[in-house]
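Exercise 7. Predict the joint structure of the components listed below.
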Amino acid sequence: MVCWWAISDIPMNWFIDAQIMEQRTGYLSDKSNLWLELSKKLSVRDWRNHLCNQYFGSKVRGTWWRKLLFLWVAGWLLGSLWIFWFMNSQAVEKRRETLASMCDERARMLQDQFNVSMNHLQALAILISTFHHAKEPSAVDQITFSRYAERTAFERPLTSGVAYAVKVLHSEREQFEKQQGWRIKRMDSTEQSPAWEEDADLVNEETSRVQGEYAPVIFAQDTYKHVISFDMLTGKEDCENILRARESGKGVLTAPFRLLKIKKTGGYSDICSLQVRLTSNATPAERIQAAIGYLGGIFDVEALVDKLLHQLSSKHSIIVNVYDTTNPDEPISMYGSNMTGTGICHISTLNFGDPVRKHEMHCRFKQKPPLPWLAITTSIGTLVIALLVGYIFHATVSRIAKVEDDYRQMMELKKRAEAADVAKSQFLATVSHEIRTPMNGVLGMLQMLMDTDLDITQEDYVRTAQASGKALVSLINEVLDQAKIESGKLELEAVPFDLRAVLDDILSLFYGKAQEKGLELAVYVSDQVPEILVGDHGRIRQIITNLIGNSIKFTERGHIYLTVHLIKEVMTSLDMETEAHSTNTLSGFTVADRRRSWERFEICKLELPGSDPYLSSTTSDLINLIISVEDTGVGIPLEAQSRVFTPFMQVGPSISRIHGGTGIGLSISKCLVGLMKGEIGFVSEPQIGSTFTFTVVLSRACTTSNEYKSSEFHGMNALVVDHRPARAKVTKYHLQRLGINAILEIDPNQVLARLTSGGLTTNMVLIEKETWSKGNSIWPSIISRLKDDQLDIPKVLLLANPSSSVKNNSTNSMEYISTIITKPLRASMLQVSLRRAMGCGDGEPSRNGRPPQLSLHSLLHEKQILVVDDNIVNLRVAAGALKKYGAEVTCADNGKKAISMLKPPHKFDACFMDIQMPEMDGFEATKRIRKMEADTNNQIKHGEVSVETFGNVLHWHVPILAMTADVIQATHEQCLRCGMDGYVSKPFEGEQLYREVTRFEATKRIRKMEADTNNQIKHGEVSVETFGNVLHWHVPILAMTADVIQATHEQCLRCGMDGYVSKPFEGEQLYREVTRFFKTVTKKNQ
Amino acid sequence: MESDRLQKIYIDFASVVFREEFLDNQYTQLQQLQDESEPKFVLQVGTLFLEDSEKLLNGLRSILDQQDVDFEKLDACVRKLMGSSASIGAKRVKNVCMAFHNSCKNGSKEGCLKCLQQVAQEYLLVKRKLETLFKLEKQILAAGGSVPVLSQ
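Solution:
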C-alpha cells in the first residue's frame, strides 16, 4: 500500500503544483534541461502563459504536447503493469509463506505423533525386558502380550501392530525350539517385502537355515500372530534393520511397504532393539553384545497423516504428500494421492528419529490461487487515474488551444472593431467638416441675402434659416467635441496665454447679444492672477463661452458678470464679502450667492481647514483659478438642477424651442473642467439668477510682461465715479491693466473735493452713465468749477451701457464729455478710447516694437485688393499675405486682365502689380489704367457721363503699388513715373506693407479735412470767422525723408504735400523748400 | 515624445538649411502667414514654386539651346525665377539668378550657360531641402505636434 501511495502521489500532486509534473514529464522529454530551467524561472502562472505562448503559438509546438500526452499514457500503462506484477508477486510470496508454515506445522505434528508412538514402543520393549527376560520363568506369554498390546493400542494410535523377536544364538536354538514348541522358520528368500505380509507365511513355513544367531518372533499382537516363529534375520531388510538397531541402540525404520491385507496404502515397520542394562556410552560392539531381543511395530503413516489432517481444520485447503526419500532418485510415496496440485509446492523435511531414513512432506494448495483482485484493481485504478489526468491535461491543453484561438479571433475582431471605430471617427470628422464647409457657404449666402432688399416675411424666413444653420454648425461642433471627450481623444494644449486677453475676446464675442438685450456684461480678473498662464486657452474659452452663452440666453435684464480669482484668494476673502453681497452687485439686481456654487468643491474642503496649503500652493507653479459666471436670469428650476450636467438634458421641452441649443454644452464643459483637474458647480435661484463656478489648474509662465501696462497711460491717475462699488471695481480693474491708477468714488458730490484736494493730478474722470444720469444737475457745475480752477482739467469720460434707453438721456450735458466708452470694457477698446480722448498719438503703431499687424489688419480689413502677377508662386504668396491681414484678394495673372478689371467702375480699393510680366508689364498696365481713370474723371467732370454710373465716385484713382523683387533704385523711380503710388519689394514684409499702405494716409486725411472745410467756407455753410478768417486752408506739409530718390518727391507732391526735405537737414535745401512753398501758400491764400 | 523628437530634428535641419542660406527669412515669413484658414499654405506655395521653377528651368534650357539666344526672353525667364525664388525665400537660387540676370544683360552666352548650370544645381539642392522640410512637417503633424515656427 505504501508503494501505491508513493506512486499515486505524483499524479495527485500534479494538480497542486504543475512544476512537479512538469519536471516529471521533463524526464521523458528531450528538452528536460530547458524545462528544468524554465521551471526554476517561472511561476506556475507564468509557466502556463509560457506554455500558451510557447507551445500553442505555432503548429510545430502544438504536436509536442500530444507526444507528451502519449508518453504520459504509455508510461502509466507500464507503471500500472508493474504495480500489478509487484502486488501479484507479493501475494504469491505470502501464499507461499502460508503454505510453508502450514506444511511445517503438519510435519512437526506428524513428527511429534510419531515420536510419541516410538516412545510407546520403547515402553513396550522395556515391559518385555522386565517381564519376559528378567523373570524366570517368563511372566509374559503370547496371550498376555497380545492382550496387553491390544489394550494399550490407544496409546499408539499409529502403530497397527507390534511383535517381539528374541535373540537366539545357534547354540541355544535346540533348547529354544524345544522350549517354544515350534521350530524357527525362515522367511521366504524370494520374498521382497518384509515378513509382515500376511500371505507370505503360509507359503514359506520352512525351517530356518542354520545361522549364527536367530531372531524368532515370540510375541505378536493378535492381528500379526502368524509371524510368530519367523526368524527376522532371515528377512533381508529386516535383518539389516535389526543389525542397525542393535548397533545404534535406537529404533530404526524400514522402507515403507504396503499392508495388503488390511488395505492400508502405506506403512512403516519400526524395529526397536531391546538392550538390557547398558550405559549410554556403550560402544556398538557392546550394544550388539547386549542385545537380547527386538521389538517391531507397524506404523500406519497414512492413518497418521489422515488423523493429523483431520485435527487441523484446514485439511481440505492443502494436499499433503509424504515421501521417503532415502533414495533420492526413487522417492517412495508414503501418503497422498498422486494427483499433482497446481502451483507452488512446499517441502518440509521430516525427522522420525532414524538418521538413515529421510522423509519429506510435500504440501500443495488444493485450490488454484485466487485472482489477485487487489493488484488488478490497484493497477487498473492507477491507470484510470493516470488516464484521467491525461484526459484532463488533454482537455486543458485543447481548451487552452481553443481559448488561444478564440483570443486570436477576438484580437482580430478587436482590431477590426478598432479600425471601424477609427473609420467612424474619421468619418465623423470628415462628415462634420464636410457639413461645416457648405454650411458656412449657406450661412454666408444667407447673410448676404439678408443684406438685400427683403420684405418682412422674407427677412424672417432668412433669419430663421440662418439661426437654424448656426445652431446646426454649433451642434456639429459640440457633438464632435463630445465624441472626442468620450473617446478620450481630446488632448489639452499647454501653451502660454494671457487670460485677460482671452476674456476680452469672449466679451467682445457676446457684445452684440448683450447689447440687444440691454444686459451689462463685465469681467473682473483678480490682480493676483498671473499675467501669463500656461494651459489650454481654447478650452477655457469654450467653457466660459458656453457658460456666458447660457447666461445670456436666460437673462432678460440685469447683468452677467465674469470673475476670475485664485482659489486661496476667494477662501480668505470669504468672510468679508458676505454682508454686502446681496445688494452690491453689478447691475443692482440681486444675485444668487455664488459662494454656494463652490461649496461642494473638493479643493475648497482641502484648503479650508488651515493656512498651510496656501503656502504650499503659492510656492508651486500650479495656479488654481476659480472662475465664476454670475447672471440675473430666470434661474434653473429646482427639479431640473440635478440633471444640468447630463448631456442632452434641458430644463424642459419648451426651452429648446425658445432658446435653441442642444443641452450638450454644460456636459462638455464639465468634461473639459474635469480634464483641467477642476470642478464645476452652480447655484441657482429661480427668478433671481444663477451662478456657475468652475476651477481649473493651470501653471505659471515665467514671463510677466504686459503690453498694456507699458502703454502711454502708465502712471496716470483716474477717478472712477460709480455709485455701485462692484461695477466700479470692474472699471478699476481695466484701468489698472493699462497702468492707470484708479481711485473709486461712490458719491458724485465728493468728486470735486477729490479732484481739487488731493496732491495727485487726476488725468481723467470716468463716470458711470447711470451715475451721471442720476446726478444730472451736479455735473455741469462741477465741470465748470473745474474749468475755473485749473488749466489742466481732467478728461471726463462716460461709461455707457450699450442699451439704447440710456442713450438719448442727458444729451444736454454731453459737451463736457470727451468720449463715451461703451461697455463692456475691454483693455484694447479702453485703450483706443482713452487714446482718442487723451489725444496722445494714435499714428505710431510700432511704438512698442511690435509689428503693426493689428493696425495693418484694421487698414486692410475687408478691402478689395487686386493682385496682378504672372508668377503663380508670387501671386499665391502675395495673396496669402494680404489675406492674412483680412483683405479680400482677387488675382489676375497678366496686365491685360488687370486693366479690364480696373476699368471704372470697379470695387477694388487697391492694386498690387508685378512689374515684370510678359506681354504687358506693370508700367504699361499702370499707364493705361491711369489714362483710363483720367478719361473717366474728365468725362464725369464735364458731365459727359453721370456720376451715378460710376458709383458716385467723382475722382477715380486706384492706388497701385508695384511689387518687385528688384532692389534697384531705378525701378522704383520708374514705378512712380508710370503713375504707381508706391512699391513693395517682394516678398512682402508686414512692416513695409504697412508703411506703404499708410504712407500718405496722414497727409491725405489732413488735405481732405482742409478740402472739406474749404468747401464749407466756399458754400457759406460755416462762417469764415469761425475758421480764423482763413478762406482757404492749406497747411504746408513738408515731407522729411532720408530718401534721396527723386520719385519720392513726386509722390509727395501727388499726395498733397508741398515739398520734401531730405534728412539730415541741409540748410540750403531747407531754405529753398520753405521759401518755395511759402510762396505757394501766399499764392493760394490769395 | 515622438512629436518633440521630430520637432527637434526639424529645427536642427531647418537651422542648417538657414545657415547654409538655402532659405532665408522669407520662408519664415511664409510660415507665419500659415494659419488655421490656410493650414497648408507653405506646402502649397512650396510645391507651386518647385513645379514652376522646373518649368522655368526647362524654358531657360530650351532658350539657351538655340543658336541665336534671345537674351531678352531669357532675362524675362530669369527674372521670373528670381521673383518666385525670392518669394519662397530660396536665397541661393535668387543669388544665382541675379548673376544670371547680369549675364543676360551682358549678352554672354557662356556666362548664361554657366549660370544655368548653377541655377539648376541650386534648384535641386533647395528642392531636396524643401521636400525634407515638408516631409518632416507632415510627420510632426501626423505625430500630433505642431510645426515649430522658425525664426532667424
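Discussion. Helices of chain B lie at 2-19, 25-33, 41-65, 71-88, 91-106, 109-142.
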